[in-house]
Amino acid sequence: MKLAINNVASTFFILAGIASALSIQDSSSALKHKRGPLKPRRVQSLLINPDAQPDLPTVQAATAAASAASLNLDDIQGDVLIGMKKNRELFYFFSIANSTDFKAKLASEILPLITTTTQLLDVSTQPVTFLNIAFSQSGLLALNVTDSLGDSAFAGGQFKDLGNLGDPGSVNWVTEFAGTGIHGVLLFASDTDDNINESVASLESAMGNSFAKVYSLSRLGLVQLPSPATNDGISNPAVIGFTANPSPGQANVSSGSILVGESGDSVTRPSWAKDGSFLVFRQLKQLVPEFNKFLTDNPIIIDGLTREQGSDLLGARMVGRWKSGAPVDLAPLFDDPALGADPNRNNDFTFQHPDAVLATNQTRCPFSAHIRKTRPRADLGTPEDAVHHIMRAGIAYGPEVSTDEANSNTTSTERGLAFVAYQSNIGNGFRFLQRTWADSPNFVHSGVGVDPIIGALAGAQRVITGLDPTNSTKQTTLTTGKSFFHTLWSLAAESTFFSPSLSAIASKLSV
């Protein structure tokens, strides 16, 4: 039975001492020995399981799938393959103050606490608080790790990639990110804030002066979000070697699409990097009251729809899903909560219908809709592209919209999405999705405009067509302050990280 989630608010919110020569197998055994015998520490999972998202595999099914694919789930950090399944999370960005001390503490204090994929799949082996770690390029250099990981976006950092991503400069960035001083990020997750706070305080005490906090983003998961926030994981791919039974319509990708050095990863990597993954982090401010006002002021006018229903339809067509998670391709005029909550149906579509021409028809789903821009399905032919996929593992942050904010249609308290995506190749994953698809006015067809949710165009006005199903050529102009993800990207300069395997930490990073 799936766990219950909070009631949702009526707004869109779219969318975590060991010897140096350990082998992967030896690492797993040594870590278990270090921790002592695994004992039940929970009676209720720290993970959430929204109805709309595909179920996680059981530990038995995942172990069998991993064995068949020669994948070691005991060596892979838990956030990489699990996806968006957290209720509370804290991102703790740090700098390394003393590399010698940090390496020793990394081995003795952090490594034994890192939560693996296998551990997360079984309540009896879940920790009270989940912990994972990832390092920036400057962080690896601080640890004297100079090997090229074969990823230019990671090596350069997102701060140097502004032009490629269409971001409108760094003027709105959190100041701590404007440089290379962030060496890594610790991900804490649990079901209560007290658990996280206790774990943070304990680890800070244990680490002493070996590192220093640069910035943290907390109070995550507290917003009572509409389903698109928890349902951003609907389209997460099934990974061979992990997902035992893909849901209908779920993309089936090789493990090497997400994990470095596995089948499907064609880039030359250092051997120690195997089973790591590149983490892209973005802190995205969202102007929710302003977005709601935009919808209210611009309803789609169709006979039989009230103005409120027309406003809801506009928002759904911009995203490509209703608040319940139901795709507009299958529910073109009205939300269908039963469809949205059914993982065997809510992802089982291709945008192709026997009574319509795929290349021209937008009555069901606009070509510019967020879910169509980032996963075009049959628009690029069948079988579907299996290269440009990411594992989303982000979470919302900030309070719900207050009465004063709703009445004034003005944001006064920051809220948004802590976007996290894992992939083995940032150029094929996040960067490709953002630059080549979402930011292109001519994808998948000429003149449709950019993705209305995440399309950036360096802050310029964005003209989009197809949002009105009665007039596919009608233009909708989104300007600063009027769109959902508009130009307020509060992003890190070093917002690309590498999440190494446990054996890599033991054999390469902590010696």
TrEMBL record:
Q: Which InterPro entries match?
A: Dimeric_a/b-barrel, DyP_N, Dyp_perox_C, Dyp_peroxidase
- Signal peptide range in chain numbering: 1-21
Keyword entries, A-Z:
Heme, Iron, Metal-binding, Oxidoreductase, Peroxidase, Signal
Span of domain Dyp-type peroxidase C-terminal: 243-439
Query: From the UniProt record, which GO molecular function terms apply?
Result: heme binding; metal ion binding; peroxidase activity
Q: Which cofactor does it need?
A: heme b
What's the superkingdom here? Eukaryota
Q: Which Pfam families match?
A: DyP_N, Dyp_perox_C
Annotated DyP dimeric alpha+beta barrel domain residues: 75-217
Q: Which GO terms describe its cellular component?
A: cytosol
Q: Which residues form a coiled coil?
A: none
The UniProt family comment states:
Belongs to the DyP-type peroxidase family.
PANTHER family attached to this UniProt entry: DEFERROCHELATASE, DEFERROCHELATASE/PEROXIDASE
What is the name listed in the Swiss-Prot or TrEMBL entry for this protein?
DyP-type peroxidase
